[in-house]
Design brief:
Blueprint: H1 2-26, H2 29-52, H3 58-67, H4 69-86, H5 89-111, H6 114-127, H7 129-163, H8 170-178, H9 180-204
Length: about 200
């Protein structure tokens, strides 16, 4: 029994020696140099980690990995890198020009009293006047359109009056007075006059 065990041990020892010899034969000087360099770099990296106190950041990094924050940071970095790659010289020049024009505009607004305008708007907002202006603005625009239409009507009436021949005599005047359009026009003018008188009286009372 002991003889068989000794023989098996000798065979195993012989196989181990063969593996070691094969490994020695396979290792060239270049491979040995590269392994030595890799081990040296690894030891240097461990030394730098030790001296920089990076081990204190490991719990935070672990939490970031667990929460997915590290992956989001990596995605943001990829987006930033893609945007940086997409920016050519022309686009950078245009962006710089746009930023310059924006700064110039802000400077002109500052020198032109834009700060005072902002203060006035803030005062109007605090007193409620700005809201009242906003509410009455649509009605004001409608009134302005009515005034513009009135002037257009006056201009057209003046043009028609110049081009239409005038007929004299009491008969012509009588026909004008009997015309329904004339009556409606006079009623309209009387109504306008009455409204204007009432408005003016209410302002002076």
């Amino acid at each position: 029994m002991n003889t068989e065990t000794n023989e098996e041990g000798a065979v195993v020892h012989h196989e181990v020696e063969r593996v070691i010899a094969a490994a020695k034969d396979a290792l060239t000087d270049e491979m040995v140099g590269r392994l030595s360099g890799a081990m040296g770099d690894g030891l240097s990296l461990l030394d730098q980690v030790n001296r920089s106190g990076l081990e204190k950041a490991l719990p935070t990094i672990s939490r970031m990995v667990a929460d997915g924050d590290l992956e989001r940071l990596a995605q943001l970095a990829r987006v930033y890198s893609s945007a940086q790659d997409a920016l050519n010289d022309e686009m950078v020049g245009r962006l710089a020009e746009t930023v310059g024009e924006g700064l110039s505009l802000l400077d002109r607004l500052n020198r032109g009293g834009a700060g005072r305008l902002v203060e006035m708007l803030e005062h109007l907002e605090s007193t409620g006047a700005l809201e009242r202006i906003a509410n009455t603005l649509p009605a004001l625009l409608e009134r302005l359109e009515m005034v513009s239409g009135l002037f257009n009507c006056l201009e057209e009436a003046a043009t028609e009056s110049r081009n239409k021949p005038a007929a004299g005599g009491i008969g012509s005047l009588w026909r004008i007075m009997k015309d329904e359009d004339t009556v409606r026009s006079l009623q309209f003018l009387l109504s306008v006059s009455k409204q204007m008188q009432e408005k003016c009286a209410s302002k002076h009372s």
